[in-house]
TrEMBL record:
It comes from the Eukaryota. It holds the Pfam family UPAR_LY6. This is UPAR/Ly6 domain-containing protein. Keywords: Membrane, Transmembrane, Transmembrane helix. The keyword Transport does not apply. InterPro entries: LY6_UPA_recep-like, Snake_toxin-like_sf. GO terms for cellular component: side of membrane.
Length: 105
């Protein structure tokens, strides 16, 4: 049976709809555009779950994070929170390795 994913283009969960994906779409994607905190969820192709493909779709010049997953309705808000936490950790690590000193509260 076809995968079901949340689909929306906003940070407001109320506007996300559950949608059945076309059969060729085999993962759900959850994209966060860091600067605007815009959230995009949709059906996606597993072979395009690579940074270069996602950047090409959502903007080469944008700082984005994304996660792909392959079970029904897996691109929910909770996944976004986990991903953002990972990105904040990586951001801290990158800043530290660049010689910048950050104070974590």
């Amino acid at each position: 049976s076809a995968l079901s994913c949340f689909q929306c283009n906003t940070d407001n969960d109320e506007t996300c709809i559950r949608t059945g994906c076309p059969i060729e779409y085999n993962v759900c994607i959850n994209v966060t555009i860091i600067a605007t905190r815009e959230l995009v969820r949709r059906c996606w192709l597993d072979e395009h779950c690579q940074s270069k493909d996602v950047q090409a779709e959502f903007g080469e010049d944008k700082d984005i994070s994304f996660v792909c997953c392959n079970w029904d309705l897996c691109n929910s808000r909770t996944n976004r929170t986990i991903r953002i936490d990972v990105n904040l950790f990586l951001l801290g690590f990158l800043a530290a390795s660049a010689g910048l000193h950050l104070i974590w509260f």
